[in-house]
Amino acid sequence: MKFFKFKTRLYPLVAIAASLFVIIFGLAYARGRYTGIYLLGVLVWLCPFGCLRGVLRMLPAFVVFGGAFAGIAYASAGGDVSAAISMLNRFGALFLGVALSMSVSAVRMTRSLSQARAPRAVTLGMLISMSFVPMLKGEISRVREAMRTRGAGSLLNPKILYRAFLVPLVMRLVNISDTLALSVETRGFTLGGGLYSIYEKEYPAISDVLFLVGIAAGAALTVVL
Question: I want to staple 74 with a disulfide (CB 3.0 to 4.6 A). Which of 9, 84, 88, 103 is the partner?
Answer without folding.
Answer: 84
